[in-house]
Amino acid sequence: MARLDTDEFSRKVLVVDDDADWREFLRLSLEELGYEATEAADGREALESLQRGERYEVMLLDLHMPGMSGREVVERLPRGQLPRIVFLTSAAAQDVGAALLSGPHYYLPKGASQDQLSLLLQSLGE
Q1: Whole-prediction pTM value?
Q2: DSSP SS3 for 6
Q3: What is the DSSP string of 31-99?
Q4: What are the residue ranges spanned by the domains of the chain?
């Protein structure tokens, strides 16, 4: 895997989830780990952020959101520099297999600890 880039967006993470408590936990954890985190409550907000030109190295993306699923968000991502996608879900890993096979995506179960989040982000940087 490629190292995380060292330019201005290399420590920027977009957290997209309809669960406000989980989103806040992830944002606070990311900030403690030295990342700049931005929150989006749904897929529409996430796409608007990217269409405004915001750049993120990683997008933590809820797979099952009302309105627009995480897979639909990925399908609608603007062309160009795309973030690495980490799907968030309470479903078991075998239940998200199709989403993971749709591209070079990663998986973090909802309820994961800050240490698990840190390990995942470190693995993306190796």
Answers
A1: 0.84
A2: coil
A3: HHTT-EEEEESSHHHHHHHHHTT---SEEEEESS-SSS-HHHHHHTPPSSSPPEEEEEESS-GGGGHHH
A4: 12-124
Measured CA to CA, the distance from residue 123 to residue 4 in angstroms comes to 10
User: How sure is the predictor about 34, in pLDDT bands with cuts at 50, 70 and 90?
Assistant: very high
CA-CA distance, 71 to 105, in Å (whole number)? 11
Structure confidence by residue, pLDDT tens digits, 11-30: 899 999 999 999 999 999 99
Q: Collapsing DSSP states into helix, strand and coil, what is residue 123?
A: helix
Alpha carbons 78 and 48: distance in angstroms, whole number: 10
What CA–CA distances, in Å, run from 45 to 70, 92, 117? 12, 26, 23
Does the domain made of 12-124 have the CATH classification 3.40.50.2300? yes
